[in-house]
Amino acid sequence: MPAIGLGVFQTPPEATTDAVVAALQTGYRHIDTAAAYANEREVGEGIRRAGVDRADIFIETKVWISDYGYQETLHAFEKSARKLDLFILHQPLSTAFEKTIAAYTALEKLLADGSVRAIGVSNFMPGHLAALRERTAVVPAVNQVELHPWFTQPEVQAANAELGILTQAWSPIGGITSYRGDGATSTFNDPAILAVAAAHGKSAAQVMLRWQLQLGHSVIPKSVRPERIAENFDVFDFELSEAQMGVLGGLDKGVRGGPDPDSITLEAFGRPIPEE
Ligand SMILES: NC(=O)c1ccc[n+]([C@@H]2O[C@H](COP(=O)([O-])OP(=O)(O)OC[C@H]3O[C@@H](n4cnc5c(N)ncnc54)[C@H](OP(=O)(O)O)[C@@H]3O)[C@@H](O)[C@H]2O)c1
Prior knowledge:
This protein is of the alpha/beta class. About 40% of the residues lie in helices and about 10% in strands. It has one domain: NADP-dependent oxidoreductase domain (TIM Barrel), CATH 3.20.20. The protein has helices at about 15-25, 40-50, 70-80, 95-115, 125-135, 155-165, 175-180, 190-200, 205-215, 225-230, 240-250, 265-270; strands at about 5, 30, 60-65, 85-90, 120, 140-145, 165-170, 220.
């Protein structure tokens, strides 16, 4: 899986095709979407338009909780794609874990059939991972979780590493500290990150992505702006020192921007995913 992918959460369908084309033309070969983002079709359209060989592109999408269950999740695969590389559960359902297990069992079948190249999970905390491992056979290839310098989830990183699961960072540049934050402070204007960025002649976003890559994380930064899509990919010509890695690693505030995974219930967050 390419280390950098384009994220498309909150990218409106009408902007998605252009963002995907811009990313593929920049050199990205990995796109992260989800049934719940309502833009999978436009991701496919961007891939067709960009003129890059499909075999060279890694497509990742997520099953929404409303489609959990064995048959339901097999059907969700049909709704999502004809051809996918990585298929993951978007959230653990702590209050309906049987459905989560059944959904993951459907992913295992899709993997065994060769319908997908890899399967995984998202927003699974160590307890969810342990409960999943007790009941299923295939270790998830990735666990996609909120992870940026202000929220580093060391216990999740450790659990992933122990199980051999790749940590994939969502909001890898802390976008959520900006679009869900106080409007004034965010990772983008954190003075410590800006100081490291200035030392390299790079932006805060580039330094955060470099930090993630040096930690061995997969990253999926989102942008709809071609210049930022290019900026977020231009992170292979510099390296952070151990001290600079420590600076970014020391900024954790221990406060998540996204919802607590245990607060995700069918009652509060369930909604139908259309057939097409
Ligand atoms: N599994 C989950 O539950 C979950 C949850 C959230 C996100 N995700 C995935 O992770 C991806 C990324 O997360 P995210 O969208 O929350 O946050 P992000 O990628 O950390 O940040 C995106 C935000 O930062 C802005 N931005 C992008 N590049 C920038 C740059 N170089 N300088 C300054 N601002 C920049 C974007 O605005 P513009 O578009 O205007 O540039 C957007 O508002 C999502 O798209 C999605 O694929 C998954």
